[in-house]
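call fold(seq) -> C-alpha cells
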Amino acid sequence: MLTDKPPRKASCKDEFQRSDTTLTLSLPPELPVNTYAALLEAALREEDRRAIQSFCNKIAGCVAEVYEVEAPHIRVLGVRPLEESKGAIHETYGDYTFETSEIRLWMRTAILEKATSYGTLLSTLCHELCHHIDVVSMDMPNTFHTRGFYERAGLLYHHVRGTPRRTLVWDQQQNSTFRINWPATMRGGAVKTGL
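ret:
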C-alpha cells in the first residue's frame, strides 16, 4: 500500500497532516461486531452474496453507531472491474461514493472469478468505512490515503476480526510518499489492539 503524495494546495495540507498523525479511531463494542464478522466469513465460504451484503451492512451499522452518524449503505457486487493504465492492470476491490455515502465491494476476483478471501473482503470494507468516517465525522473531506489513514483502517480491521494488530513499518519513497514494508511489518510481531 502506498500513501498519497502530500498536496500542494495550502488548504489541503492541514487535513493531510491531521490524517497522517491521527493513528486511532473509536471502535465499536466487540459484541456484536465480532459475531457479524464471523457470520460474514461463513457467508463468504458459501458465496452467499445477499448474506455477505447483510453482514457488511451490520458491521457498518456498528461502526456508524459509535460515531453517531448514518451508516453508509453497502452493496456487494460480483466480479471486480479491471482498469489498465500506464501498462499496469489494477483491480477495484471496493469504492466509496461521497455524494451518496455508498460503499461498493466486489466479492469475486477479476481473472479467475473466484470468491475473494475473507481477509481481503473485510480489509476492503474497513478501508471504505474509514473513508466514510473521515468524511462524515472527522472533518477530513478529502480522506487522503496517509499513514494515519492506513493505521486507522488496520486498527478497525483487527478489532472487527478479533485479531492482534501489527505495527505498520513504512519506507519513504523518493516522491514523498510512503509504502508499507510488509516483510518488516510481519516480522515485527503483533501488538495490542489499542494504540
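Residues 10-188 form one domain.
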